[in-house]
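To whoever is on call:

I kicked off a structure prediction for a single chain this morning and the downstream step that reads the tokens threw a length-mismatch warning. I double-checked the sequence; it's 81 residues and nothing unusual in it as far as I can see. Pasting both halves so you can look.
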Amino acid sequence: MRINGEVNQSNITLLETDGLKRCNVCKKYKMLDHFHKHRLRYDGLASACKPCLNIAANNLYSSQKLMARKSNARSVTPAKK
């Protein structure tokens, strides 16, 4: 937690100092190299692990692809004779 731009060291858990961090999505403790870098976070790492972010990105891509197909199907009009 940042207070006046400084990191409050009491909020860093013992597990994070041991090289583990908890993913906010799957709630599992994982090694620090399973997290993307995020320079605005107090620990410099993203809150969700890489596999969870990959799943979220694939779900978003699939839903956007489906929406595009539906909008393209609606926009096709029959040719006039």
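Update from on-call: the warning came from a stale cache, not from the record. Cleared it. Sanity check on the structure: The chain has one domain: 2-75.
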